[in-house]
From TrEMBL, chain A:
Pfam families referenced in this protein's UniProt entry, alphabetically: bHLH_ILI
Gene Ontology BP annotations: regulation of DNA-templated transcription; regulation of growth
Keyword Transcription regulation attached: yes
Similarity remark: Belongs to the bHLH protein family.
Name by which UniProt lists this protein: Transcription factor bHLH135
This protein's UniProt keywords: Growth regulation, Transcription, Transcription regulation
BHLH domain mapped to chain residues: 22-80
Keyword Transcription regulation: yes
Region (Disordered): 1-37
Domain of life of the organism encoding this protein: Eukaryota
Taxonomic path: Eukaryota, Viridiplantae, Streptophyta, Embryophyta, Tracheophyta
Organism: Dendrobium catenatum
A GO MF label: protein dimerization activity
């Protein structure tokens, strides 16, 4: 399941039959080695969150709140997915109700903006 | 192509515009087939166009772009089918790691560090896509209102 070129564990050629237990140990092996790097990445992800822009450097990412940051990132991405769904619905409704000329004008305006 | 519409974004203007361009081109195509297709199918086509234009604007080296553009998708479906057949026990507790894996396209096949990088990239393009779609909706509604005022 995991790409072998990035992990420190021996490469597993039978990717499809890899057990979940082995995948979890491989995951913990890689996180033990690159702990600092991971905290750096999680901090970087934290800056992407919308509420992170309000209190930028308040909380440094430690192992304690890493899980919390991951949760926030998950809910952020989920909310973005939901927005894309809602906006797609709205766009399809709008395409239905607007005539061709208005739709084209709107599209051209968005392109030029 | 055109100017960067987001002052807060740190990307080159070209990348943001390419995403806009791809999306609007797909939207125009969907608009042309308007009378024949029902509403829900159109909204699903628009949604697919959103993700594809994200993937086209982003780097092709990314796992998530490859997953969206279909090369990993077939593999993943086959793998999921095989997993369901082999494993009787169901993992009820999913850690935040697992949740993130499932949210990011192609997330099942990478190790955690790579996943974090891909997540950052993916979230960036996703939020840009939301901004693009919002502005298209705003422009369309403005045009509708203008039309109503004239009548």
């Amino acid at each position: 399941m995991h790409s072998s070129s990035f992990s420190s564990a021996p490469p597993d050629h039978r990717r499809f039959t890899m057990s979940s237990r082995r995948s979890r140990s491989r995951h913990s092996a890689s996180s033990r080695i690159t702990d600092e790097q991971m905290n750096e990445l999680i901090s970087k992800l934290q800056t992407l969150l919308p509420e992170a822009r309000l209190h930028t450097n308040d909380r440094p990412v430690t192992n304690a709140n890493a899980a919390k940051v991951l949760q926030e990132i998950c809910s952020y991405i989920r909310s973005l997915h939901r927005e894309v769904d809602n906006l797609s619905e709205r766009l399809s409704e709008l395409l239905e109700t607007t005539d061709n000329n208005s739709a084209q004008a709107a599209i051209i305006r968005s392109l030029l903006m | 192509m055109k100017q960067n519409k987001n002052t807060s974004s740190n990307n080159s203007p070209r990348k943001a515009s390419m995403q806009t361009y791809h999306f609007l081109r797909s939207l125009t195509h969907i608009n042309l087939t308007r009378p024949s297709s029902p509403l829900h199918r159109r909204s699903r086509a628009i949604r697919r166009a959103a993700y594809v234009s994200m993937a086209r604007a982003a780097s092709p080296r990314r796992m998530w772009t490859r997953a969206i553009l279909g090369r990993l998708q077939l593999l993943r479906r086959a793998r999921l089918l095989r997993r369901r057949r082999n494993y009787k026990k169901k993992t009820t507790i999913s850690t935040p790691h697992d949740k993130l894996r499932r949210l990011v396209p192609g997330g099942e096949e990478m190790d955690f560090c790579r996943l974090l990088e891909e997540t950052a990239d993916y979230a960036e393009f996703l939020s840009k896509q939301v901004r693009i779609m919002r502005s298209v909706v705003d422009f369309m509604e403005a045009e509708c209102r203008k039309k109503e005022e004239k009548v």
